[in-house]
């Protein structure tokens, strides 16, 4: 046995370990793949936002005067297809999930690093297909591809777009398989199931949904392709098919897909709340199991999308009841976050503001979801702006706000730099105000009878549309401002040190940015999750600028480190 | 068995046993996604049969039950061969010839399945006008009969693609074992997973056969 090292020397920093372009595109480091995903999602977000801008400009006036009816259909389809399939579904799992899962478990990488890279390439190929369809003229089916419109009548590039979404499903499945196997096999010694961070639990539940639901979407889309391309009628009534069958199959995936978008957000918020309150998370096991409960219940509620389609009344009643049930584990989480804040030592820093904003938006979006799950009320507001507002509160208000919170929480870990705290908090507040101004009026006009997907409307709704459109520049500011100060911090931010929030969790024990293989030696876990010291929990009334004190502490710590 | 870390430093596993567990779990999850793909089709067939019981019965009467039965037998025998080969593979390199023979035999039976499916069944259905868009006009009048046939083609077509992939994988594994590219039993995962995949293809057919051929 020679003394030659078995492994090459491990770089202190995964970003600078190898510096060629090639090393990025052939990397199998989960942290770099997370950044590859982040870059792709960043681009998709702006393409999808362009669709939203067209919609809100068109809705300024009751006459359809900016774009034609068909142009409007293409705009909201672009917005929906890109935002749902290429932004919201992959948003948190592929970026923070990829980056943090091995770090949080004490592993060197995901279980199948090459599969992870492959999933990024599959995702990019599917994105190219879909963007090509949009570039060539777009499609007007809506993101749901409802038959018979999508299978027979639509004359856009539906086939190409469906192929794109079909392929993107494989990327989702690969990621799900990778996460599940990693969680089972690569936990560090001592990292028992009930010591895992709650973000890992939420990713695990999300992955189960991805693995079990995405194939059903795949076969549904394949059947549409068969119908469009080969005339094999399954959904088209003129060929003897049943259009409702499409909706059953589609929503069997797409309702659970909502939980693919929101469950990782729950995990992020659990991390943010417990770190922001510097308090042990209240009811750890309840939060962990509620993620699994939501994942399982999510498979049983697809029929609530079809209350008005003529499915049997008894089916409607059962689906309504099951949909109410989802509120239970969701409420468990909200109550447990509130209980964690109670007697916490709260610092109103940027990630924590995002977390508070999330809780408000999510609770409101969730309550309106219960309203929609009620059979009778749904008949009144079905396919109105009430529904639009509800799912934007959940999928954008909650999920994207959680993502922004995650960006601000783990930014120092990913980049090693601190950002401007004042601008951070300003953008969290701007985001919240802009979001509510944009989408709250939509509840009202939806309740008053404004249908969705219309490019011209009755003048009585104009005041609500004006308010809604007025909110979008503020919302856009909330999203854009971080781009600038975070970009600035990359070059000018103060070094963060390994643990700027003094948070618990394995990812905070390694240097920032983490080294190439995450840990320098074998990891052994001896402590429970969120093991915040008890004496820290309550120290009388908070000083108004507690965050500043924390920042001073950090500076002192940094100065001490510099002296060493 | 405890092994040294991968010298490239890229392997997340320190322990070969854990790596095998992970690979096995990944394979089972992949098979679960495959099963869910077919579950969507089974749901579609179930809905069609519930909505149009008469059409489904009439259409099913036009399927060649004896051909389907023969094909079922072929797949069952091939699955048995694969099972034998997988057990033999665990015994190591001295069983190399047996493993290769079993897998090659299974691949040949799978190819025979495809030949019968396409050459006999699909061809006859083409001449009867049952394939949408090809051949003479669709002959059946009962409500839902055409829909049943469309589902039949979607399901058996997707299954045939899986059989084709399975045949290639089985033949590849047989050659790999014979030429010692896959060392037994260390590289048994590849052999084992190919076998698992083939069992899935078989199981899907075991469900498709009664649902499609034995209605009514």
General description of the model:
The complex is a heterodimer of chains A (about 575) and B (about 220). With about 575 residues, chain A is mostly helical. Chain A is built from 17 helices and no strands. The longest helix of chain A has about 35 residues, at about 245-275. With about 220 residues, chain B is mainly α. Chain B contains six helices and no strands. Chain B has helices spanning about 15-50, 55-60, 65-90, 95-130, 145-180, 190-215. Chain B is elongated, with a radius of gyration of 21 Å. The model of chain B is unreliable at about 1-10 (pLDDT under 50).
Short structural summary:
The complex is a heterodimer of chains A (564) and B (216). Chain A has 564 residues and is mostly helical.
Number of helices of chain A: 17
Percentage beta strand of chain B: under 5%
Number of strands of chain B: 0
Span between termini of chain B: 55 Å
- Overall helicity of chain A: 55-70%
Radius of gyration of chain B: 21 Å
Strand tally of chain A: 0
Shape of chain B: elongated
The low-confidence parts of chain B are 1-8
- Main beta-sheet annotation of chain B: none
Please write the string of helix (H) and strand (E) elements of chain B. Answer: HHHHHH
The two chains with the largest interface, and their residue counts, are:
A-B, 50 and 42 residues
What integer is the average pLDDT of chain A?
89
**Biggest sheet of chain A, open or closed, and with what strands and sense?**
none
The residue-averaged pLDDT of chain B reads: 88
State Rg of chain A: 24 Å
From N to C, what is the helix and strand string of chain A?
HHHHHHHHHHHHHHHHH
Task: Tell me, briefly, the overall form of chain A.
Answer: globular
């Amino acid at each position: 046995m020679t003394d030659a090292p078995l492994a090459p020397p491990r770089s202190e920093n995964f970003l600078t370990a190898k510096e060629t372009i090639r090393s990025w595109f052939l990397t199998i480091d989960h942290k770099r793949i997370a950044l590859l995903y982040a870059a792709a999602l960043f681009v998709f977000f702006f393409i999808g936002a362009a669709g939203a801008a067209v919609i809100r400009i068109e809705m300024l006036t009751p006459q359809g005067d900016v774009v034609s009816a068909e142009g409007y259909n293409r705009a909201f389809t672009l917005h929906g297809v890109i935002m749902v399939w290429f932004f919201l579904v992959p948003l948190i799992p592929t970026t923070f999930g990829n980056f943090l899962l091995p770090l949080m478990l004490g592993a060197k990488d995901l279980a199948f690093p090459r599969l992870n890279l492959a999933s990024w390439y599959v995702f990019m190929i599917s994105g190219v297909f879909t963007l090509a369809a949009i570039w060539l003229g777009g499609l007007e089916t809506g993101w749901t591809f409802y038959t018979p419109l999508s299978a027979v009548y639509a004359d856009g590039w539906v086939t190409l777009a469906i192929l794109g979404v079909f392929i993107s499903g494989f990327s989702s499945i690969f990621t799900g398989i990778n996460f599940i196997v990693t969680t089972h096999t690569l936990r560090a010694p001592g990292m028992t199931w009930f010591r895992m961070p709650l973000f890992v639990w939420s990713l695990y539940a999300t992955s189960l949904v991805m693995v079990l639901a995405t194939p059903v979407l795949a076969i549904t889309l394949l059947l549409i392709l068969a119908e469009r391309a080969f005339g094999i009628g399954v959904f088209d009534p003129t060929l003897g098919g049943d259009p409702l069958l499409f909706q059953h199959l589609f929503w069997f995936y797409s309702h659970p897909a909502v939980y693919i978008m929101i469950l990782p957000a729950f995990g992020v918020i659990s991390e943010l709340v417990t770190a922001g309150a510097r308090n042990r998370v209240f009811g750890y096991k309840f939060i962990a199991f509620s993620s699994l409960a939501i994942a399982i219940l999510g498979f049983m509620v697809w029929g609530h999308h079809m209350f008005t389609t003529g499915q049997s009344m008894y089916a409607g009643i059962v689906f309504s009841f099951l949909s109410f049930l989802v509120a239970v584990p969701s409420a468990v989480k909200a109550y447990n976050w509130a209980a964690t804040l109670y007697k916490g030592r709260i610092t109103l820093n940027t990630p924590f503001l995002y977390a508070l904003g999330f809780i408000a938006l999510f609770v409101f979006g969730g309550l309106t979801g219960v309203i929609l799950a009620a059979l009778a009320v749904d008949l009144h507001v079905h396919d109105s702006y009430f529904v639009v507002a509800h799912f934007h509160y959940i999928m954008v208000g909650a999920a994207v706000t959680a993502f922004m919170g995650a960006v601000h929480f783990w930014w120092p870990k990913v980049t090693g730099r601190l950002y401007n705290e004042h601008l951070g908090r300003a953008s969290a507040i701007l985001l919240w105000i802009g979001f509510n101004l944009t989408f709250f009026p939509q509840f009202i006009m939806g309740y008053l009878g404004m249908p969705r997907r219309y490019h011209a409307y009755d003048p009585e709704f104009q005041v609500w549309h004006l308010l809604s459109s007025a909110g979008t520049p503020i919302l856009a500011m909330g999203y854009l401002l971080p781009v600038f100060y975070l970009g600035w911090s990359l070059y000018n931010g103060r070094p963060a040190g390994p643990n700027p929030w003094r948070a618990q969790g394995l990812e905070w024990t390694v240097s920032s940015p983490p080294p190439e293989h995450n840990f320098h030696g074998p990891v052994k876990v001896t402590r429970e999750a969120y093991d915040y010291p008890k004496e820290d929990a309550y120290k009388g009334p908070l000083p108004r600028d507690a965050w500043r004190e924390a920042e001073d502490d950090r500076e002192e710590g940094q100065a001490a480190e510099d002296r060493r | 068995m405890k092994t040294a870390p991968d010298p490239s430093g890229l392997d997340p596993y320190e322990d070969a046993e854990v790596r095998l567990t992970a690979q096995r779990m990944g394979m089972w999850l992949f098979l679960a996604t495959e099963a869910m793909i077919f579950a969507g089709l089974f749901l579609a067939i179930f809905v069609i049969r519930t909505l149009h019981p008469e059409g489904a019965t009439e259409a099913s009467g036009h399927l060649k039950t004896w051909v389907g039965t023969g094909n079922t037998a072929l797949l069952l025998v091939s699955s048995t061969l694969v099972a034998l080969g997988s057990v033999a593979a665990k015994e190591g390199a001295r069983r190399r010839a047996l493993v290769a023979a079993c897998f090659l035999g299974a691949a040949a039976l799978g190819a025979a399945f495809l030949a019968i499916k396409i050459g006999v069944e699909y061809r006859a259905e083409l001449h009867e006008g049952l394939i949408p868009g090809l051949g003479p006009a669709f002959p059946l009048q009962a409500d839902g009969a055409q829909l049943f046939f469309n589902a039949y083609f979607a399901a058996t077509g997707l299954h045939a693609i899986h059989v084709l992939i399975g045949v290639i994988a089985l033949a590849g594994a047989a050659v790999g074992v014979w030429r010692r590219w896959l060392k037994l039993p260390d590289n048994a995962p590849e052999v084992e997973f190919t076998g698992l995949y083939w069992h899935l293809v078989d199981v899907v057919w075991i469900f498709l056969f009664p649902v499609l051929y034995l209605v009514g």
